[in-house]
C-alpha cells in the first residue's frame, strides 16, 4: 500500500481499501483503488496554516509508507488536503498560479518515477504481457490529466496564464521562460497541447500581428518595417526553440509571415521599392528579397515591380533628348547597378536576370535608332587616341560592358553605319588608341552578329594593311625611277564598298603635290589596270616644317590647314576672300580651318580684328612670335559638330539598306514558297530580318515588288501572293 502526494494545492492520492465518509471519486485499476477527494468550500485559515498543513500531510504520508501508526485522524487529513484547493483562486496571481501548477507537475513526475521504480518488475513483465493495461507512467499521466488539467477552471486559467506571459514577452517584457517551457512540455506530455493550447495560441498570434501589420504599415517606412518583421520572425523562431513544441513552428511562422508580409506585399513594394532601388540600399533589398521569398507569391510580385522599375527608370534615360550626351554611360552605370542587386540581393535568381534583360530590351528600343547611334559614338570615344581614362585591361572590360548594352538594341545596322564612319576617321587620321583594342572590338561584334555584319569593317582593316605594302613598293619605285623631291607621300588605297561615302571636294593643290599624285597614279594603275582612283582631300593630313623667331618647329596639320599655311610662303597677309580663292576650300570648311590656326591654342596665324570667330573681311598673317615647348605640334582641326543633316543622311542610308534587305528577304521567301497569304509572308519576313520593321513599311515593299513584277496578287484571292519567275 502506498500514497503519493502529487499536488500541493488540489490533489491527494491514496491506494488501498480504506473507506471515507466524505464525497469521493474512485477509479479502479485492476485491484488497486486511487481515491481523489475535492472540496470547494473556502475554510477559514489561521496564520502559517499552509506550512503546518503540508507538514502534517507529509508526516501522514511517511507514516503510511513506513507502515507505522498515523498521529492524525484520516478524516481530518482528508479535510486538510481538500481545503488547500481553494487557495490559488483567491490569493495567488496568475503567475503564481502557473508556478503552483508547475510545482504540482514536477512533484508528480518525481513521485511517479519513484513509484515506477518500485513496480519496475511488474511494469516490464506483467503489464507488457497484458496489452490492455497501461504502464505505471502512463497511468500517472492519465490521472493527472483527468483530475487536474481536465478541470475546466484549472485548464482555462493555466492556458490564459501561458498566453498572457507570451503576450507580455512579445510586448518586450522579461518573463520566466523556463516556467513556460515546463508548462508547455507538461501539456505536450499530457497530449492536450494542440487542442487546449496551440489553437488558441495561433488565434491570438493572428489577431496580434494582423493589427500590428496594419498599424506599422501606416506608421513606418519600408526599411524600418522590414527590419521589424525580420525581428518578429526571429523572436517567434526563438520561442519555438526555447519553450514551444516543435510541431507549432510551421503554423506559427506561417501565421506571422501571412499577417506581416503576405497581407502587405503590394503595399510594401508600392511604398518603398523605388526608393530602395534609387538609393541602392543593398542590405535592405537583400532583406526584402529574403522576406518575400518566405511568402507564397512574394517573389513573383517582387519580380513584376522589378520589371516595372527597370522600364520606368531606363525610359527616363533613353527618351529624354537632353540626356543624349550621357545616355550610354548612364545605361552602363544602371546595368552595373541592377547586376549588383541581382547578384547580391536577389541571390542571382535566374528569373530576375531574364526579366532584367527583357526590360532593358523594351525601354532601350522605345526610341528607335538613337541609342544605337550613341553607343557607336561612345565606343569611338573609348577607342580614340588620347583616351587616357583606362589601361588596356580596363578598356577591354569597358568594351565588354558596352557589348552587353549593344545586345539589347534592335537597330544594329544603325550602330554599324555610325561605327563604320567613326572607325574610318580613327584609321585614316591615325587616331586609333590601339590596334589590338580595335580588333578586339571587331571580334566581339563578329561573335555577336555574325561574319556578314563585320565583313565591311574587316575590309577596312585589310585596306589599311594592303596600303602599307603598296607604300613600300611605291618607295622602291621612286628610288628606281630616281625621282627628285623633298616631299614624302603616303597614300591609303580604300575600297569604295567598304568605307563610308565621302563627298569629294576639289581644292587647289600646290604643283609639287599634284606632281606626286600623278607619279603615284602612274605607279598604281600600272600594277592594277582598269581601276579608278579618286582623291579624298578631306581626309588628307601633312607634317610641315616651319621656322619662327624661336626656332624650327614641325606642324602636324590637315591638308586644308596645309594649303592655308603654304600661302604665307608667298605673302605676309591675306584676307578671308583671298585665301578662299587661292585654295578652293569650301566656305564653312575654310572658316573652321582658319579658326583652328588663328584662334586655337596653337596660334601660328594672327587675325585682325581679334575674335573667336572668323568673319568676312578678316585679315590673316603669319605669327612669327609663335612659341611652343614641343618641337612637333599637332594643331587640331576644329571639328564641326555632326549636324542634324549629317545624322539624317547616315540614317537615310541605313533605311535604304534596310529596304534592299527587306526586298531580298521577300523575294527569297516567295521563290521558295511560290504562293503565300499576306499574314504568312509577313510572319516569315519578320523572322528573317534582324531589325524592326513597321507593318506599313513592309506593305510598301511588297507593293514595290509587285510593281516591278517580282510577284503578283492572286486573281481569285487578293490576300494571297504568287511568285513571278
From TrEMBL:
The keyword Ubl conjugation applies. One of its GO terms (cellular component) is Cul4A-RING E3 ubiquitin ligase complex. Pathway: Protein modification; protein ubiquitination. GO terms for molecular function: ubiquitin protein ligase binding. InterPro entries: Cullin, Cullin-like_AB, Cullin_CS, Cullin_homology, Cullin_homology_sf, Cullin_N, Cullin_neddylation_domain, Cullin_repeat-like_dom_sf. The keyword Metal-binding does not apply. Coiled coil: none annotated. Keywords: DNA damage, DNA repair, Isopeptide bond, Phosphoprotein, Ubl conjugation, Ubl conjugation pathway. GO terms for biological process: DNA repair; protein ubiquitination; ribosome biogenesis; ubiquitin-dependent protein catabolic process. Residues 370-598 form the Cullin family profile domain. It holds the Pfam family Cullin. Belongs to the cullin family. This is Cullin 4B.
Amino acid at each position: 500500500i502506498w500514497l503519493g502526494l502529487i499536488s500541493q494545492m488540489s490533489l491527494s492520492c491514496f491506494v488501498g481499501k480504506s473507506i471515507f465518509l466524505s464525497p469521493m471519486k474512485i477509479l479502479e485499476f485492476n485491484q488497486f483503488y486511487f481515491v481523489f477527494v475535492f472540496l470547494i468550500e473556502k475554510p477559514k485559515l489561521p496564520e502559517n496554516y499552509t506550512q503546518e498543513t503540508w507538514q502534517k500531510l507529509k508526516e501522514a504520508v511517511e507514516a503510511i509508507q513506513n507502515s507505522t501508526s498515523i498521529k492524525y485522524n484520516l478524516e481530518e487529513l482528508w479535510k486538510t488536503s481538500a481545503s488547500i484547493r481553494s487557495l490559488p483562486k483567491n490569493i495567488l496571481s496568475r503567475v503564481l498560479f502557473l508556478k503552483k501548477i508547475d510545482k504540482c507537475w514536477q512533484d508528480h513526475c518525481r513521485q511517479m518515477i519513484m513509484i515506477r521504480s518500485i513496480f519496475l518488475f511488474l511494469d516490464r513483465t506483467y503489464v507488457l504481457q497484458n496489452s490492455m493495461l497501461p504502464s505505471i507512467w502512463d497511468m500517472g499521466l492519465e490521472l493527472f490529466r483527468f483530475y487536474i488539467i481536465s478541470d475546466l477552471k484549472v485548464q482555462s486559467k493555466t492556458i490564459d496564464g501561458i498566453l498572457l506571459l507570451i503576450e507580455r514577452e512579445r510586448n518586450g517584457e522579461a518573463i520566466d521562460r523556463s516556467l513556460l517551457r515546463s508548462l508547455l512540455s507538461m501539456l505536450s506530455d499530457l497530449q492536450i497541447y494542440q487542442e487546449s493550447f496551440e489553437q488558441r495560441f495561433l488565434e491570438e498570434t493572428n489577431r496580434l500581428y494582423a493589427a500590428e501589420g496594419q498599424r506599422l504599415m501606416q506608421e513606418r517606412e519600408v526599411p524600418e518595417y522590414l527590419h521589424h518583421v525580420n525581428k518578429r520572425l526571429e523572436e517567434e523562431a526563438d520561442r519555438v526553440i526555447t519553450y514551444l513544441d516543435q510541431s507549432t513552428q510551421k503554423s506559427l511562422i506561417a501565421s506571422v509571415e501571412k499577417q506581416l508580409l503576405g497581407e502587405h506585399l503590394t503595399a510594401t513594394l508600392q511604398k518603398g521599392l523605388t526608393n530602395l532601388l534609387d538609393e541602392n540600399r543593398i542590405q535592405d533589398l537583400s532583406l526584402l528579397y529574403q522576406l518575400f521569398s518566405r511568402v507564397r507569391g512574394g517573389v513573383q510580385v517582387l519580380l513584376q515591380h522589378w520589371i516595372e522599375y527597370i522600364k520606368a527608370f531606363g525610359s527616363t534615360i533613353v527618351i529624354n533628348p537632353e540626356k543624349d550626351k550621357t545616355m550610354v554611360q548612364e545605361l552602363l552605370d544602371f546595368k552595373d547597378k541592377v547586376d549588383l542587386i541581382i547578384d547580391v540581393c536577389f541571390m542571382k535568381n535566374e528569373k530576375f536576370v531574364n526579366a532584367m534583360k527583357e526590360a532593358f530590351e523594351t525601354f532601350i528600343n522605345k526610341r528607335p535608332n538613337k541609342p544605337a547611334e550613341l553607343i557607336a559614338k561612345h565606343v569611338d570615344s573609348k577607342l580614340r587616341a588620347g583616351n587616357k581614362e583606362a589601361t588596356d585591361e580596363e578598356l577591354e572590360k569597358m568594351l565588354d560592358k558596352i557589348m552587353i548594352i549593344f545586345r539589347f538594341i534592335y537597330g544594329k545596322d544603325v550602330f554599324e553605319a555610325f561605327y563604320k564612319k567613326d572607325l574610318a576617321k580613327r584609321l585614316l587620321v591615325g587616331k586609333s588608341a590601339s590596334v589590338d583594342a580595335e580588333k578586339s572590338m571587331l571580334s566581339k561584334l563578329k561573335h555577336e552578329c555574325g561574319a556578314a555584319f563585320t565583313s565591311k569593317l574587316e575590309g577596312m582593316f585589310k585596306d589599311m594593311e594592303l596600303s602599307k605594302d603598296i607604300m613600300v613598293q611605291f618607295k622602291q619605285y621612286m628610288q628606281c625611277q630616281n625621282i627628285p623631291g623633298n616631299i614624302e607621300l603616303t597614300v591609303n588605297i580604300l575600297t569604295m564598298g567598304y568605307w563610308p561615302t565621302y563627298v569629294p571636294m576639289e581644292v587647289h593643290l600646290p604643283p609639287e603635290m599634284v606632281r606626286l599624285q600623278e607619279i603615284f597614279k602612274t605607279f598604281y594603275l600600272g600594277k592594277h589596270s582598269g581601276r579608278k582612283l579618286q582623291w579624298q582631300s578631306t581626309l588628307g593630313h601633312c607634317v610641315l616644317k616651319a621656322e619662327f623667331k624661336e626656332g624650327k618647329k614641325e606642324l602636324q596639320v590637315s591638308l586644308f590647314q596645309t594649303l592655308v599655311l603654304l600661302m604665307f610662303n608667298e605673302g605676309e597677309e591675306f584676307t578671308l576672300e583671298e585665301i578662299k580663292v587661292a585654295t578652293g576650300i569650301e566656305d564653312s570648311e575654310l572658316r573652321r580651318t582658319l579658326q583652328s590656326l588663328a584662334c586655337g591654342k596653337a596660334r601660328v596665324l594672327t587675325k585682325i580684328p581679334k575674335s573667336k570667330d572668323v568673319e568676312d573681311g578678316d585679315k590673316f598673317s603669319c605669327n612669327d612670335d609663335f612659341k611652343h615647348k614641343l618641337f612637333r605640334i599637332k594643331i587640331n582641326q576644329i571639328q564641326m559638330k555632326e549636324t542634324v543633316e549629317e545624322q539624317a543622311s547616315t540614317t537615310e542610308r541605313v533605311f535604304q539598306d534596310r529596304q534592299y534587305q527587306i526586298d531580298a528577304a521577300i523575294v527569297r521567301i516567295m521563290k521558295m514558297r511560290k504562293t503565300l497569304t499576306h499574314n504568312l509572308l509577313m510572319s516569315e519576313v519578320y523572322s528573317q530580318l534582324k531589325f524592326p520593321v513597321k507593318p506599313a513599311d513592309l506593305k510598301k515593299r511588297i507593293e514595290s515588288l509587285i510593281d516591278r513584277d517580282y510577284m503578283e496578287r492572286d486573281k481569285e484571292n487578293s490576300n494571297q501572293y504568287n511568285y513571278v519567275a
